[in-house]
Amino acid sequence: MSNTEVRHAELHEPGLGNPELRKRIDDEYRWGFVTEIEQEIVPKGLNEDVIRLISAKKAEPAFMLDWRLQAYRHWLTLREPTWASVHHAPIDYQAIHYYAAPKTRTQPKDLSEVDPELLRTYEKLGIPLQEREALAGVAVDAVFDSVSVATTFKDKLESLGIIFCSFSEAVQKHPELVRQYLGSVVPYTDNYFATLNSAVFTDGSFVYVPKGVRCPMELSTYFRINAKNSGQFERTLIIADEGATVSYLEGCTAPMRDENQLHAAVVELVALKDARIKYSTVQNWYPGDREGRGGIYNFVTKRGDCRGDRSHISWTQVETGSAITWKYPSCILRGDDSVGEFYSIALTNHRQQADTGTKMIHIGRNSRSTIVSKGISAGFGSNAYRGLVKVLPTAANARNHTQCDSLLMSDHCAAHTFPYIEVKNASATVEHEATTSKIGDDQLFYLRSRGLSAEDAVNLIVNGFCKEVFKELPMEFAVEAQKLLAVSLEGAVG
Amino acid sequence: MLEIRNLHVSIGDKPILAGINLTVRAGEVHAIMGPNGSGKSTLAQVLAGREGYTVTADSVRYLEQDLLAMAAEQRARAGVFLAFQYPLEIPGVANVQLLRTALNSVRLQRGEPELDAMDFLDTVKSKLALLGMDESFLYRAVNEGFSGGEKKRNEILQMAVLEPRLAILDETDSGLDIDALKTVASGVNALKSPQRAIILVTHYQRLLNYIVPDHVHVLAGGRIVRSGDASLALELENRGYGWVIPEAQEEARP
Ligand SMILES: Nc1ncnc2c1ncn2[C@@H]1O[C@H](COP(=O)(O)OP(=O)(O)O)[C@@H](O)[C@H]1O
Ligand SMILES: [Mg+2]
């Protein structure tokens, strides 16, 4: 049985074919379960002592604490941004727990040391921990709340010199790499949420692929929010040294919660000369209920630095979850002949809001970028594409192609496109295409007259609309992503 | 197989069909002819379950079931197939994907297991060969960028794969050159069997040279104004519709 099939079986609850049952679970967030594990929680609120406590609990070297404190002090001077096309009640940053860890204190050596309750959670999520080593090459670095609890395939990767571990472990074992690259793509002064993350981040993933090494498997992380009121502040840092290649998968689901939860992650990618990084995300945080109550605020800063010539960074994202999504995975195309790509599907249903897109900053000569954005709005959802293509004077012959499509599924949803283009080199070619279409009754009837249920008809049309992005995803992820779209659109039409 | 009693259809306040009576038995081929705008497509779409019409009838029975109570997909799964006059484009969805999803939902209803990818491809390829269609058809997006003739042949391919009990072909002949017409006709003839029935909607008799109907009906002013055998189609071809329609209007007088 392949990994994909296993995950499939897990995701596909029995009896879903039954229309009655389907109806009942319509819109009930399918993975909204809560794991009962004793939590160790630092009291609510944020001040320098909390940051010192986080740093101390993680036994960090002094440079880390200094960096956090600098970030915190800078954050105090900032105001929450208001430019995005999203609306939410004010966030009370003093009402958040900034540190929560499962009670399992010592780092488990193998699966038998992992809390069985936790294993069951992952099982429900479709990550077959027990079987995973036997399964096709996906190494899983599972983040449960804030502390990594299990890492696999380490030996195999280590033999190639690849480092794939939790951020905390990297701070302990590879402080020189962390010190060299942390904040080098997203500085702690970058923006309100990235600055907050820099001050309080508790864990995340770290990847280093040495010169000339092609990582032989997809690296994967599953995030999960579990503790009540615990904001999640992951930090991921991926470095591909000269000529290295790596593909990284990030996927997440979250349990049902009433209160809004802030999620402010930072991801930094560094691609040196001739290196290639592919970063794929399926984001399925709890979106809130039909009326927009609850749900995750997903305010993420993701940026890749194509630092070397001929380097290549590709972002692919499928965003179906969260009450509010605010993220712009970007590429700084510093190297000559460097390539940046952004493939995105963003789906908003019910009261979900998404303001997402990318920034392509062309600095190197002959740098090229491709943007394919597919926005799907259903219910009362609001979906904005916001993209910047900037060509600096140094970027002779830079090229960009942007394709931005919106699909509307109801009369109440909204789609907006905000393309910003700044070209400071006359030899550059920048193309922008945009379309908006509404899913048609005649298309639906055509498919239903072939025996497809209304739901299957919608899914087929949506999958066709998203095809260009799906084909960029690793196979198993593409399958999961299609399922997520289907689940997220249940009851959206008809 | 199909028994329509006093079917009335309107769109908004506008009556389109005003009392259709039609009986189609298994094994039969019926042709429905009539001038443009007489309601042929409306009849075809209402039978296939399109929503948005006001439909009333004494009864519409299909294989002992109340057809009007069934949703479009239920009708399809029960063996009703409509080849569209204007097939829709589904961007990004490969033909093969639609065919497979459709066939499996129909098979599920029949209590047959889903076909795996290999068996499915074998089935489809034999149908392609029958219709003289290239395999590349399968991997193109559904009807996207297809010529008029390709769209029509694609409808017949879907029909051949789904093997319906009652096939309704809405002007499948229009826009086809003579060779394409012959292949389409042979596809339809291959489907003919004592268990199946076919309704051909057309306003030319051309197609009927290749698929010989048992009954021909003329639809005008929302009613079937005349029925006959295959010779009626020939007569219409020679004399046009004018001679049947005034007659009908006279009959309609109190
Ligand atoms: N959606 C619609 N709204 C209003 N009138 C319509 C609509 N569809 C068809 N009609 C009208 O119904 C009548 C019958 O159309 P149709 O069934 O397409 O005829 P045929 O197929 O015989 O050419 C025509 O007068 C046409 O204008
Ligand atoms: Mg017509």
Q: Reading side by side through the largest sheet of chain B, how are the strands ordered?
A: 7-10-11-3-12-13
Q: What is the CA-atom radius of gyration of chain B, in angstroms?
A: 18 Å
CATH architecture of the domain at 2-88 and 163-252 in chain B, by name, is: 3-Layer(aba) Sandwich
Structural class of chain A: alpha/beta
CATH topology of the domain at 2-88 and 163-252 in chain B: Rossmann fold
Query: What is the percent of helical residues of chain B?
Result: 25-40%
Task: Tell me about the largest β-sheet of chain B.
Answer: 6 strands, mixed
Low-confidence stretches of chain A: 1-31, 103-107, 128-140, 142-150, 222-230
Strand content of chain A: 25-35%
CATH-level-4 superfamily name of the domain at 2-88 and 163-252 in chain B: P-loop containing nucleotide triphosphate hydrolases
Which two protein chains have the largest interface (Cβ within 8 Å of the partner's Cβ), and how many residues from each?
A: A-B, 23 and 33 residues
- Please compute the radius of gyration of chain A using only Cα atoms: 22 Å
Uncertain runs of chain B with pLDDT below 50, 5 residues or more?
250-254
Main sheet summary of chain A: 11 strands, mixed
Distance between the termini of chain A: 37 Å
Write the layout of secondary structure elements.
The complex is a heterodimer of chains A (494) and B (254).
Chain A: H1 3-11, H2 19-25, E1 39-41, H3 48-57, H4 62-75, E2 100-102, H5 116-125, E3 138-144, E4 147-151, H6 154-159, E5 163-166, H7 167-173, H8 175-181, H9 192-200, E6 205-209, E7 218-224, E8 235-240, E9 245-253, E10 261-263, E11 266-271, E12 276-284, E13 296-306, E14 312-319, E15 324-327, E16 330-333, E17 339-348, E18 353-362, E19 368-377, E20 382-391, E21 399-408, E22 414-423, E23 429-438, H10 441-448, H11 454-470, H12 475-488
Parallel strand pairs in A: 3-7, 6-8, 7-9, 8-11, 9-12, 10-13, 11-13, 12-14, 13-15, 13-16, 14-17, 15-18, 16-18, 17-19, 18-20, 19-21, 20-22, 21-23
Antiparallel strand pairs in A: 1-2, 3-4, 5-6
Chain B: E1 2-11, E2 14-24, E3 29-33, H1 40-48, E4 54-56, E5 59-62, E6 65-66, H2 72-77, E7 80-83, E8 90-94, H3 95-109, H4 117-130, E9 141-142, H5 148-162, E10 166-170, H6 178-191, E11 197-201, E12 215-220, E13 223-228, H7 230-239, H8 245-252
Parallel strand pairs in B: 3-11, 3-12, 7-10, 10-11
Antiparallel strand pairs in B: 1-2, 1-4, 1-5, 5-6, 8-9, 12-13
Helix pairs in contact in B: 5-6
The structure holds adenosine-5'-diphosphate and magnesium ion.
